[in-house]
Amino acid sequence: MQKLIKPKRLEKGNKVAAVTLSWGGPGRHKHRYLAGKRVIEEKLGLKVVEMKHTLAEPEYIYKNPQARAHDLMEAFSRNDIHAIFSTIGGNDSVRILKFLDLSVIRKNAKVFMGYSDTTVAHLACFRAGLVTFYGPSIMAGFAENVEPFQYMLDYVQKALFNTSPIGVLKESKYWTDEYLDWELEKNQNVRRQLNKDSGWRWIQGEQKRSGVLLGGNLEVLEFLKGTDFFPSLNQWKNSIFYFETSEDQPSQVQIEQWLRNYGVQGILGVVNGIVAGRPVGSTQGSSRELIEAIKKIVVKEFGRGDIPIVTDVNIGHVDPILTVPNGALATLDPKNKKFSINESGITA
């Protein structure tokens, strides 16, 4: 595994660039964007700045991937900006890749955070040699209805402001995947229904295994297969493969097909463990289907009964979520049911 650059930790008063790399959500639901911006400024003490196209209309954002990429490059280049937060996900940020200059990212390492379709930018940064943070976006995470989840804020603080090892990750006591339409601005003042969290599911493993965290959204990783931005087999070697799925709720068969490809590529044969996020629709059985898909493909078809596997972790599209450093060393301890991040993803 390559030696990655860690960005500098954040401090109160730092400027954060808001970038729209995929769907033009901020231009369509400005109230939602502003709610997230307000939380970042009031709860974290940071100053959010919009780039030229952050609030552009969705149609413009769709038609101009070069403009999206320009915003990201400018954010990395500007000395007054200390971090970059994705505003929201989507499904086509792969179109920005040809417009990125990885040398700019490499020379101007700074905190980059987001999830879902932002997986594309995470792996671009990974190719450039930078540790990034798979965590909340401005509109999905920080802009939680009524008020943000303290669990989410605590892990943003741990990951982005504190240079101590993040340590053992804790489970949330509750979770929600309820959808309240953003088109209705009044919904911003309606709390989402919470479900009691029964805990992460350790489905196999006897021994501790460690490795660098590598992964993202499973559907978006499919967009990257076959490109120069998909990690090489050597980069997957001895890693902890983490993934989560979107609100589209891919079927068990789809997940099996995608994971089978990882097996055929040899990736499942070289990873040291698997972390899967709780899927949307868990109350309807999606969690059980995900577990069955992992058992069938990873364990039965490709014979990885030796590695620890934990599912229903607070990563991805079910809130509240963790912030985890992509490229940092982690340990899975199935016997004691502990998922730890052994280092900080930032420097002083």
Describe the structure.
Helices cover 31% and strands 19% of the residues. The chain is built from 11 helices and 16 strands. The strands form 3 sheets. It has an 8-stranded mixed β-sheet with strand order 6-16-15-10-11-12-13-9. Strands 2-1-3-4-5-14 form a 6-stranded mixed β-sheet, with helices on both faces. It has a two-stranded antiparallel ribbon with strand order 7-8. The longest helix has 16 residues, at 286-301. The protein is globular, with a radius of gyration of 19 Å. The two termini are 23 Å apart.
Assign the CATH superfamily of the largest domain. LD-carboxypeptidase A C-terminal domain-like
Succession of helices and strands: EHHEHHEHEHEHEEEEEHHEHEHEEEE
Classified by CATH, the class of the largest domain is Alpha Beta
Q: Mean pLDDT, nearest integer?
A: 97
Number of helices: 11
The spatial strand order of the largest sheet comes to 6-16-15-10-11-12-13-9
Count of the domains: 2
Sequence stretches where pLDDT stays below 50 over 5 or more residues: none
CATH topology of the largest domain: Glucose Oxidase, domain 1
Number of strands: 16
CATH-defined architecture of the largest domain? 3-Layer(bba) Sandwich
Kindly report how far apart the N and C termini lie. Answer: 23 Å
* Main beta-sheet annotation: 8 strands, mixed
Shape: globular
> Whole-number radius of gyration?
19 Å
Question: How much strand?
Answer: 15-25%
By secondary-structure content and strand pairing, the structural class works out as alpha/beta
Helix content: 25-40%
